[in-house]
Amino acid sequence: MRKAILCMVKTDIHDHVAYLVKLRELEKLLTTLSYNTIKKFVQSRFKPSVNYCVGKGKAYEIKDVVDKNKPDIVVFYNVLTSKQRYNLEKLFGVPVYDRYDVVLEIFREAATDKLSKLQIELASIEKEFPYVKLRASMKYLRHKAGFRGPGEYAYHKTISALHKRIKRLRSDIEKIKKRKKMQIDRIKERGVPIVCISGCYNAGKTSLFNELTGCRKPVSDMPFTTLSSKYSSIFNGNLYLVDTIGFVLDQDPRLIQSFELNLMDIRSSNRLLVMFDASDRSEVLKLKVDMLLRMYKEIGVDSKLTLVFNKIDKIKESRIEELKKIESFIGDKQVFYISVRQRMNVEELVKHLKELS
Ligand SMILES: Nc1nc2c(ncn2[C@@H]2O[C@H](COP(=O)(O)OP(=O)(O)OP(=O)(O)O)[C@@H](O)[C@H]2O)c(=O)[nH]1
Ligand SMILES: [Mg+2]
Fold it and tell me: Model's pTM, two decimal places?
């Protein structure tokens, strides 16, 4: 296992639980990338510092630990600005990433199809662009001695190559998007309702998709097994089912935007089955429900949600009662408690779907 140090600036003084859940979640994601978290730093601040995200004193304290423990990377929960990242890398002498980079890296490792690869590359370049620009300009400034030297040439070359690549990726994705829009329009014209399975990663979305369609799409305990949507018609062609990419806690909105084809599926569906892993600890689950409901509201699909708590085979009966308490802040949405693996209550959900078709 490689070694990582985790850091976080906590800005909400009333937050006593959520930040721990978030840190643990990131630690878990790092494990899937074969990083063992050897130390965690949490600093409470009114807001992240401009130069190091953490305060300068804290940054030097972390540097001492980095020097002593020699981690492979330092990861911040907070999304870093280019300037913060540049300063931190210079200080620590090891690569510094944020949670957005971690998710992108997992995506990259998991991606097998062309569309996911295109979307991930675009998201990565767009995320890296300001940082590459900053780093290249720093190098160029160092070389600058009166005349336009090789540093400046290299700088412009790097930037223009990235611009070119972004343009190319956008145009490739745009082509696929057009094709996809036509496909969706055709289904809509036939009046067939589209149901999209969405929700957190690892909730069992693909398992449910496979169960309802008879497909055998890959399912696994690793996060982000599904990166691009899968489609199939069910009920003799009377309903269209879509399996999509999963979300992570505090998903960066830029990442959601980068996966705009998945967003298209969510927007164009008549109903969204939002899946959760009911065996998650209750504070984790509450946070996920809260985050996802807010996100769907922002996307404008709030009125189309049906909530599905899966994996009830893993929990006790009393836990379901506890889960029902979460319903109080879910509002008037319909909720199902199922186990795809044990086929518990799946029939009820099927009935619900049949009513739509
Ligand atoms: N115990 C239990 N495990 C389940 C159930 N449904 C799915 N799983 C397991 O949960 C893991 C994740 O399942 P997936 O279907 O890949 O989950 P997903 O939501 O599609 O995940 P991503 O594609 O990564 O977003 C797999 O190991 C499944 O076997 C269930 O009802 N009970
Ligand atoms: Mg999946």
Answer: 0.91
| Cα 236 to averaged position of ligand 2 atoms, centre (Å) | 23
Q: What are phi and psi of 243, to 5 degrees?
A: -105, 135
User: Which CA distances in Å does 105 have to 2, 3, 99, 120, 123?
Assistant: 15, 16, 10, 9, 11
- C-beta 211 within 6 A of ligand 1: no
Domains in the chain, number: 3
Range of the domain at 69: 2-106
| Tens-place pLDDT, residues 62-119 | 999 999 999 999 999 999 999 999 999 999 999 999 999 999 999 998 888 888 899 9
Token duo for residue 291 = 């985050």
Q: Of ligand 1's atoms, which has the minimum distance to the CA of residue 338?
A: 31
Q: Which atom of ligand 1 is nearest to the CA of 199?
A: 19
Which ligand has an atom closest to residue 29 CA?
A: 1
Structure tokens at 15: 């937050």
Domain match, 200 and 58 both: no
Are 244 and 145 in the same domain?
no
